[in-house]
């Protein structure tokens, strides 16, 4: 089970590379340096002061003193006019150059990110950059600026990282400015003095028994920036102890006047007090006697001591709380924190309807817990289930499995409908191919691991929140992550406080958490609004809580480091869940460097690009387009426009998954694109071997043990992965279900054919088409009857066999123990009994799946067999046999599948496609029987067969069209006219299908006037 990293953790775990900062190279200033600086100063004075002065004194005001008139157009163009126009151009050029100088000076002094680009000032800004660099190179504070200052006019990628977002919104380690060496040294002395005084006043309350030590944040070296994790790793032996350093220095004034408020936002030149057990040559210990300081410095030290002591007490309390099993990571340290867990309320409605208090042990198992938590608890690792192991990657990913299972069901239904439009009778197949091998295991794992109820609640909760905020005219807050806790509650972690949430949402552990209890989520209904946070995707679990990161909202790039095969599992899981998630709309996912074989999962969402060059070209164009669309709509971000009246595809998210590490040049281009991506609804997840990627706002690492680490975010998760073997198995399921793929196949045979002759009477006969009845078995005890009937129905609908864990998951969606499941199987085996030859009617195949003997038959089996025999068997060559078989088949249809089934049961039918197969099968039988009668001009018999089929398939257009033809064959025009009017009335505002309209035009040309009269 995953555990949180705590501040007093002493174990080791994989972390970022220990990149010890090296001191910047120092060189003596030469005469040439001073000469360059002097020339740069003179050039700047001439350009900034001399040019406007010369223009003002020599030429004067170039613009006319009055408002323009029509007579201007008639005046001749003189030399003065030409000079004035040139003067205006020079003034504009001077203003642009001045702006370039100000931008470059600001960037050089702050050391934060790239200088802003002045529009249309490429050469001017380059000249300004070189002049400012030459001037500042020999200044007194030159050593405190960003490294590579002498190359400010050259390529930037070797020296700076593009800024990803404002400092308050960036948890990814973007560094701020570094102060002068002199002020840093003075501040170090002040901190030392303060520490000594505080140690005496607190009577030895400082951390550890050694002298207090301090560390000065090092300036960046190339692309490497110092971080609290690496400082803790070097000097405390464990990077996870960075929280101790953070608590010792949080909210204490630094030499530049700013304060440490986020563990990921530290600046060169800052001073960090270290725990007493810190070791290393870079540390400075408290001196025996502090140097004399001024009265102003003493006042600052006094204020500093008060804030430091208060913070230490608070930090100690937080640490004690963590040691006592508190439920959250230090909320001030990480942008992504684990929400505090609340005890699950005792809700009476937690037990499904239809399961009374008198039910046996099997019915009571798992009903009081949360679906997600209990299902995961009841799903052991592969190989731990008596040989019934299934792919753990799919078992432990309930939201991913539910999305894949739902998409697979939709794909199979599309194949059925696509096939239904193609032919009638035996010229097509009704049955989707039965998966085998790894594909069968993958399908079983999806059935066991899926949590469709969790997906439904998440979707309704997010859309309900969006609708409530829109009703209050409030914007959507930026959400960094969502946590689905073990008791079913949903926690949204906001980028910043956004006030009180709308009812029934509540504030969580602080102002940046909004929480919705599961009981309140279950009362939500479907609302007609766009999905507010479609970029949420599962990354893994921590302490029984599942993290969904909102890739769309990250202020910059999310980088993922680790071995290539480990990264591939994360990328595939993210792509598959985003492509099939139920809480998103109109999403585009671009895959680069991997995933071409994943596109069958969702061809409308997934697209594959060959290389990074194509990606950069595509995203540059889309970024420009989205910026223009936002500007034209008057919106500042996709969130403000996504759920408003201007809903449009421009608000749809676009998530880029780049598995291959980009080159340095491409990485800088991507960083520039990602700097504004969160506002535009675009997210970037980029893989890297080194773990060092320019513009990375959040950095994560996947280990070989399946752990997902993000130290500066405070995350250590059990990662959600989709390994290559499971990818191939899942894709095989989708490829086999593709309607275009299935069209080329011959007609399929039903998975189980029965003897439809008089000699083929079964020992046990179950009637499923209509009310559920069983013939040939005694009724079991009242407490166990419903459960055994449901188990038998599942086995009858899957003659290929049912995995024991699939059976238990279907009967107990909230989970059940193995012994209870095995007890049910034995009870079912005893109830079904055996055949006269001693064979048990409930057996197992070579893979361990439960199978029924041929002596146990359902009316659905007979229905399929009769239709197959009539169209592809004996009836294909004998008209009389065909008519008798089709008539017998239609008599079996007594209503919908498992009619009058009790509430709260048979929820597994939502995963099946039998609800689409049965109406199509009945329609095929009705159409075939109608054609049989029309061959002999028995129109009334044909109409009777079609009416019977319409009772089970009322929406099948083929039946209505054939009914029109049969009615026309009677020669009764008035009857045909009434049928046409009835069809028009049924169609409502949608209107008649085009094929039906064309048929009516042929059979009854006056139908439109009659329909208008009826209307």
UniProtKB/TrEMBL annotation:
SUPFAM superfamilies: TPR-like (SSF48452)
Ranges of compositional bias, category Basic and acidic residues: 343-358
InterPro entries: Bact_Kbp (IPR052196), BTAD (IPR005158), LysM (IPR018392), LysM_dom_sf (IPR036779), TPR-like_helical_dom_sf (IPR011990)
GO biological process, one term: phosphorelay signal transduction system
Region (Disordered): 1-27, 290-386
Top-level taxon in the UniProt lineage: Bacteria
Segments passing through the bilayer: 37-61, 81-105, 126-146
Pfam family, one: BTAD
Biased composition (Low complexity): 1-21
Residue ranges constituting the Bacterial transcriptional activator domain according to the UniProt record: 858-1004
Keyword Cytoplasm recorded: no
Gene3D superfamilies for this protein: LysM domain (3.10.350.10)
Coiled-coil ranges (or none): none
Keywords: Membrane, Transmembrane, Transmembrane helix, Two-component regulatory system
Record's protein name: Bacterial transcriptional activator domain-containing protein
Gene source species: Streptomyces fructofermentans
């Amino acid at each position: 089970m995953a555990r949180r990293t705590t501040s007093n953790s002493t174990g080791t775990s994989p972390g970022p590379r220990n990149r010890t900062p090296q001191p910047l190279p120092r060189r003596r200033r030469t005469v040439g340096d001073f000469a360059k600086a002097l020339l740069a100063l003179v050039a700047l004075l001439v350009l900034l002061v001399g040019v406007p002065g010369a223009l003002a004194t020599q030429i004067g005001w170039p613009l006319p003193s009055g408002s323009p008139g029509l007579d201007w157009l008639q005046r001749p163009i003189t030399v003065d006019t030409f000079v004035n126009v040139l003067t205006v151009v020079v003034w504009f050029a001077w203003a642009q150059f001045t702006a370039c100088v100000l931008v470059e000076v600001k960037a050089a002094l702050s050391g934060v990110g790239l200088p802003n680009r002045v529009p249309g000032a490429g050469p001017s800004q380059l000249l300004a950059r070189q002049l400012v660099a030459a001037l500042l190179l020999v200044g007194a504070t030159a050593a405190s600026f960003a490294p590579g200052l002498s190359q400010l006019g050259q390529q930037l990628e070797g020296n700076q990282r593009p800024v990803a977002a404002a400092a308050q919104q960036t948890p990814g380690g973007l560094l701020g400015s570094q102060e002068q060496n002199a002020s840093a040294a003075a501040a170090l002395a002040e901190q030392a003095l303060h520490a000594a005084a505080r140690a005496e006043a607190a009577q030895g309350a400082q951390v550890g028994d050694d002298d207090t030590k301090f560390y000065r944040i090092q300036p960046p070296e190339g692309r490497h920036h110092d971080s609290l994790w690496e400082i803790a790793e070097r000097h405390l032996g464990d990077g996870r102890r960075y929280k101790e350093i953070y608590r010792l220095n949080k909210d204490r004034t630094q030499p530049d006047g700013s304060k440490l408020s986020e563990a990921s936002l530290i600046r060169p030149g800052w001073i960090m007090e270290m725990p007493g057990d810190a070791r290393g040559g870079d540390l400075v210990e408290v001196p025996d006697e502090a140097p004399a300081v001024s009265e102003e410095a003493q006042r600052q030290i006094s204020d500093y001591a008060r804030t430091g002591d208060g913070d230490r007490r608070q930090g100690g309390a937080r640490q004690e709380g963590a040691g006592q099993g508190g439920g959250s990571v230090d909320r001030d340290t990480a942008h992504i924190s684990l929400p505090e867990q609340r005890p699950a309320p005792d809700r009476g409605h937690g037990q499904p309807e239809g399961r009374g208090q008198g039910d046996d042990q099997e019915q009571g198992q798992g009903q009081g817990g949360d679906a997600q938590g209990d299902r995961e608890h009841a799903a052991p690792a592969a190989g731990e289930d008596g040989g019934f192991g299934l792919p753990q990657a799919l078992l432990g990913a309930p939201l991913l499995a539910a999305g894949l299972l739902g998409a697979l069901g939709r794909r199979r239904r599309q194949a059925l409908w696509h096939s239904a439009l193609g032919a009638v009778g035996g010229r097509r197949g009704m049955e989707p191919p039965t998966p085998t091998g790894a594909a069968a295991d993958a399908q079983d794992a999806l059935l066991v691991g899926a949590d469709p109820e969790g997906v439904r609640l998440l979707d309704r909760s997010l859309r309900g929140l969006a609708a409530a905020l829109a009703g209050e005219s409030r914007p959507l807050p930026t959400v960094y992550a969502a946590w689905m806790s073990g008791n079913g509650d949903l926690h949204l972690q906001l980028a910043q406080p956004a006030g009180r949430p709308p009812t029934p949402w509540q504030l969580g552990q602080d102002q940046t958490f909004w929480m919705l209890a599961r009981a309140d989520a279950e009362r939500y209904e479907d609302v007609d609004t766009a999905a507010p946070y479609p970029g949420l995707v599962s990354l893994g679990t921590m302490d029984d809580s599942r993290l969904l990161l909102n890739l769309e909202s990250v202020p910059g790039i999310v980088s993922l480091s680790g071995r290539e095969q480990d990264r591939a599992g994360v990328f595939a899981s993210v792509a598959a869940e985003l492509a099939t998630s139920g809480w998103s709309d109109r999403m585009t996912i671009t895959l680069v460097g991997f995933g071409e074989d994943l596109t069958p999962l969702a061809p409308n969402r997934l697209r594959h690009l060959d290389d990074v060059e194509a990606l950069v070209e595509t995203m540059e164009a889309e970024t420009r387009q989205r910026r223009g669309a936002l500007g034209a709509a008057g919106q500042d971000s996709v969130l403000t426009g996504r759920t408003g009246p201007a809903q449009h595809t421009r608000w749809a998210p676009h998530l880029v998954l780049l598995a291959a590490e980009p080159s340095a040049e491409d990485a800088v281009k991507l960083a520039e694109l990602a700097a504004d991506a969160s506002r535009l609804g675009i997210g970037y997840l980029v893989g890297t071997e080194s773990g060092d990627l320019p513009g990375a706002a959040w950095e994560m690492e996947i280990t070989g043990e399946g752990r997902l680490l993000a130290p500066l975010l405070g995350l250590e998760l059990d990662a959600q992965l989709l390994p290559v073997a499971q990818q191939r198995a899942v894709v095989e399921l989708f490829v086999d279900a593709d309607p275009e793929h299935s069209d080329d196949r011959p007609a399929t045979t039903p998975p189980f054919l029965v003897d439809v002759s008089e000699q083929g009477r079964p020992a046990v006969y179950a009637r499923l088409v209509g009310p559920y009845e069983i013939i040939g078995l005694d009724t079991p005890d009242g407490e166990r009857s419903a459960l055994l009937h449901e188990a038998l129905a599942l086995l009858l609908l899957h003659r290929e066999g049912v995995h024991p864990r699939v059976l238990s998951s279907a009967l107990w969606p909230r989970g059940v123990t193995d012994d209870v499941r095995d007890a049910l199987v034995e009870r079912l085996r005893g109830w079904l009994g055996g055949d006269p030859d001693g064979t048990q009617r409930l057996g197992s195949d070579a893979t361990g799946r439960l199978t029924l003997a041929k002596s146990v038959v359902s009316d659905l089996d007979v229905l399929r067999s009769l239709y197959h025999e009539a169209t592809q068997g004996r009836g294909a060559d004998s008209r009389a046999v065909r008519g008798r078989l089709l008539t017998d088949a239609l008599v079996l249809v007594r209503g919908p599948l498992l009619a009058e089934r009790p509430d709260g049961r048979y929820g597994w039918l939502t995963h099946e496609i039998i609800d689409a197969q049965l109406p199509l099968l009945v329609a095929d039988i009705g159409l075939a029987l109608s054609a049989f009668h029309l061959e002999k001009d028995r129109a009334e018999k044909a109409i009777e067969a079609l009416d019977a089929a319409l009772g089970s398939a009322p929406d099948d257009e083929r039946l209505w069209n054939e009914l029109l033809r049969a009615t026309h064959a009677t020669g009764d025009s008035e009857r045909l006219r009434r049928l046409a009017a009835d069809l028009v009335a049924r169609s409502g505002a949608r209107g008649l299908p085009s094929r039906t309209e064309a048929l009516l035009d042929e059979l009854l040309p006056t139908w439109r006037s009659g329909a208008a009269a009826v209307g």
